[in-house]
Amino acid sequence: MLLPPDEIWIWQVDHAQTLEDCEEVLDSGERARAARFREANVRRRYLTAHAARRLLAAQILKNGTPPSDFNFRINAHGKPDLADLRCSMSHTAALSLIAFTRNSPVGVDLEKIDQSFDPGREIGGRFRFGQDFFPSWVRREACGKVFGRGLSGAINEMEYRTFAFSPAIGFVACAAVPRESTVRRIRLYDFSLALARR
Questions:
Q1: Is a pLDDT exceeding 90 seen at residue 178?
Q2: pTM for the predicted model, two decimal places
Q3: What's the rounded Cα separation, in Å, for the pair 105 and 87?
């Protein structure tokens, strides 16, 4: 696999996949964090997504480094990246998205559309949601994840190039990179834990 500098590669990970020996590709910090989750579903989601991120990084970089030996750098905002590969992750109860770019910071966000959500609802009599609430929300979250700041600070969406998509029925997602990035398109893939382990 050769990730071009003008693309974001995004993998959709189904959390229903079998996790046999999944922990062996994680580092000690990830294994310790997974062990602290009390709910089995949350633990499975964490293990699946983080193992997938490491296995995919190994396939993209092809530098001979075992997946468990990758040293993810953590920036001042807590965002992990590798020296030669930028990444971002987002989770729901059923799916995760893992995005990679070669040389541009990237953010990705995913939401399951809540059919019971009332887009006309007012909050405190001042703020009213519109019909585009979920697409707007994932776009804003993706922009906040580019540098790992989240929604804690002001986000000027004009400073980002965004790519909206639907990875599955009932889900909305968005990837974002800085406006000056060379990235111009995304490619979507389904991740198979069984195939990645070969």
A1: yes
A2: 0.89
A3: 7
